[in-house]
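Components:
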Amino acid sequence: MPDYLDNLMPETTPLLKQLRAYAKKHDVPIITREGERFLNQLLVLKDAKNVLEIGAAIGYSAISMALNTKCHVTTIERDQAMVKQAKINISDANLDTHITVIEADALTLDVSELPMFDVLFIDAAKAQYIKFFEKYAPFVKPGGLIITDNLLFHGLIDQEVESRNLRQLLRKLDTFNQYILTRDDYITEIYRIGDGMSVSIKRK
Ligand code: SAM
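Structure:
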């Protein structure tokens, strides 16, 4: 049920509204509006010029970041159909020069040519978060941010659940949460924002 703050949020652009409706209709999981606003605010605070995203889906969060903060977004997506739709949406938004879509599995992608980024946003397969973090954190500049989404998993993170697969996934997310909070080379907080988002500042 939408609460007071949900109702208070101003409208987004017609394109973002349309993309959110498309995602809902086609069951594509995308960032919550609250998470989206938080993410964009962090990018502005950080004065981020370039962002690396893992998990584009239909390009919603990448488009929102590029539109709202004027940064360049490089986004990695492994699902061919998602890549196709993301590219259509990015063109419709006239953001082809602001967003680069890499069609690849982020876990196997050759990263030897990857530049350094101000911000890394991890929003792909939840069970692989530690692997994404370890592979892509070296490409975050000192003082840069690593942001992850869905860490509280719809409030289920500490609940007893019937499904064995879901239990395994929640255990992996819990392990990731402990992992980021105990890495001394980052200053990390996990926020009850959106679906649970972490912000890790890479120590200089
Ligand atoms: N960031 C998007 C947004 O908020 O608009 C939503 C991303 S959706 C939650 C997660 C996406 O990550 C899916 O489209 C999935 O195909 C992709 N994904 C999952 N594992 C991946 C991997 N190893 N490499 C690249 N993409 C991956």
